Amino acid sequence: MSGAHDHAHRHGHSHGHGHGNGHGNGLSDAGLNRSAALASIAMSLALIGLKLWSALATDSTAMLGSLADTVLDFFASLATLAGVWIAARPANARHRFGHGKAEALAAMFQVVLISISAISLAVRAVGQLVSGQRTAAAEQGIAVSLIAIAATFALLWWQRRVIRRTGSVAIATDHLHYKSDLVLNLAVIAALALDQYAGLGGADSLFGLGIAAWLGWSAWGASQEALDHLMDREWPEEKRARFVEIARGHEGLQNMHDLRTRTSGNRDFAQFHVDLPGTMTVSESHDIIDRVEHDLCAAFPNAEILIHIDPLGHVDDPGNELVEADEFGKLDEAAAAAGTTR
User: Fold this and answer.
1) Which of 234, 314, 337, 339 to pair with 93, CA 20 to 30 A apart?
2) What count of other Cβ atoms lies within 10 Å of the Cβ of residue 160?
3) What is residue 158's predicted lDDT score, i.e. its pLDDT?
4) What is the per-residue DSSP string for 221-287?
5) Does this model's pTM top 0.70?
6) What region, left, alpha or beta, does residue 252 occupy, with left being phi > 0 and alpha being psi -120 to 50 degrees?
7) Taking the CA atoms of the chain, what radius of gyration do you get in angstroms?
């Protein structure tokens, strides 16, 4: 297999597009993602009108915070729609790995908007607490919040279906934000009821501060997965181990090393080196790698996989454990350690 360590196989692209992009309901991943983004845009527009009327009627900081959050929801959903639309575009000469990171950028834009909403609401709540301002028209505010809760439950149901099928990070961030909206709307109801029916002055402001803190925490949580995509973080250990286990099931493969993985949008990427006997012909080695790729792509249908063949015993980077560590050996060590702890 002369020169085989310079020969790479790359069939993951065709396999990756052949699995997981169509569903029984006839919509592609891109179509499902767009439907979720359009649903959130339509809902946020309807709720903006209702909450604007309610905020003017109640003069509630909590309701104003809910309105501000819904306005930001609208712009965030527009960013999500743009992100999933761009991410669905096929690879081209300028972006050979595709456009999947557009989803992560859309998610980070949402994080910025959520953070702005949280800071603005906290400032408003502190000002109201200091001035002792009270709320009015609790019935209208509570009715609007109940409508918002019902609409949000419907949207979350659809988003969950889409996320399970597509794994979209932009839709997942939007989903997280709308889950926080449920708590926000419940807090508005509690704030209005306590302020007007129980006579607890300052309840609205305190709930406003609580909502601001919740939004800030949501922004922090939403940023983590988006940053992982943008920074090409490795797959979780469990996912890597499953990938290695499937590759190890093929006779002849030895010393799987320099495994690198990442996720971009709803696409996975993996590349690694394996050793094969130097006496093998290129055709024989190609047949083995084709079988390996077939099984890996069946288990990871949205993955693009690049496999580099080394002659048995070849060392790419002596002393570099990150490159040369045998993934098959690490899997055995982890299994032995798990058996010892039991």
Assistant:
1) 234
2) 15
3) 92
4) HHHHHHHHHHTTPPPPHHHHHHHHHHHHTSTT-EEEEEEEEEEETTEEEEEEEEEE-TTS-HHHHHH
5) no
6) left
7) 26
